[in-house]
Amino acid sequence: MLFKLKKLNLVLFLIISQITIGQEISKPIKYSAHNKGKIFFSFGGNRDKFSKSDIHFTGNNFDFTVYDAVAEDKPKGWNIDYINPTRMTIPQTNMKFGYFISDHYSISIGVDHMKYVFTQSQTANVSGYINLPASELGTNHNGNYNNMPVDFSDGTFLKFEHTNGLNYVNTEFARFDDVSNLFKLPNTDKFQINLTEGVGVGFLYPRTDATVLGKKEHDEFHIAGYGFSAKAGLNFNFFKYFFIQTELKGGYINMPDIQITYDNSEKASQHFMFIQSIISFGVNYKI
């Protein structure tokens, strides 16, 4: 009798176990539970801040440095140009394509299209010399400069912009962590919040609009240097496949080879820190 009772208990245990396992197997796994294998694309806009920088200009008849130059960005604001394919380079934009190599880590390539505008109304100190021949414009600025203040307001000495743009082409390695439980969200397939942070490295591919001492500008895309960056932000995922991401991104840019005229011997160089505030809209899909 005892043997039969034990046998019956064993049978009941196996039946209950199979039912429980079957229920667990049949329970749908949330799309948002795992990121590995997902690809994503995002597009958005930015606002930028730049540190002061020393800009060095050199050529056949000039060699001078503008110290502590101040620059600002050139925002477009909310505008249809963000989604107009023929005018998308006019606003300040961010574009990124990436892949999740695990649930928490992604790699991506992207372009941060910032705009850097030398503040025309500023007065800054200049050191060096200018000795242009009489046949060229800008001879009124000939002379030796020894940390002398120069008013740039009239634009005859210098106009200097990376407005199409200060293009930071970068590869980024980022981490994502689901923090939805902190907000007691019941279904992350409908709404999910992720904390993200990452680091990046890349090169600068600006189109520099510079008028130096009245010389004809170069104004063509050119690899001018390199940059490093780090970022932190929040990712808000909606209905599994769509997201909005806000980021604060800062870094260092060094451009030793900025083309300013069509004479390859005439160049500029500068390095500075930057910080971006970014908002992007995107989609993700598991392949």
Explain what this protein looks like in three dimensions.
- With 287 residues, this protein is mostly beta strands.
- Helices cover 9% and strands 56% of the residues.
- Strands 1-5-6-9-10-12-13-14 form an 8-stranded antiparallel barrel.
Question: Helix and strand layout, with pairings?
Answer:
Elements: H1 2-26, E1 38-50, E2 53-59, E3 62-69, E4 71-72, E5 93-100, E6 105-118, E7 123-130, E8 143-151, E9 158-178, E10 191-204, E11 208-212, E12 225-238, E13 242-259, E14 267-286
Antiparallel strand pairs: 1-5, 1-14, 2-3, 2-14, 3-7, 4-6, 5-6, 6-9, 7-8, 9-10, 9-11, 10-12, 12-13, 13-14
Characteristics of this structure?
disordered N terminus, 14 strands, 287 residues, elongated, eight-stranded antiparallel barrel, 56% strand, mainly beta, 1 helix
Helix content: under 10%
How do the strands line up in the largest sheet? 1-5-6-9-10-12-13-14
User: Uncertain spans, ≥5 residues at pLDDT below 50?
Assistant: 1-16, 19-25
User: Which range does the strand content fall in?
Assistant: over 45%
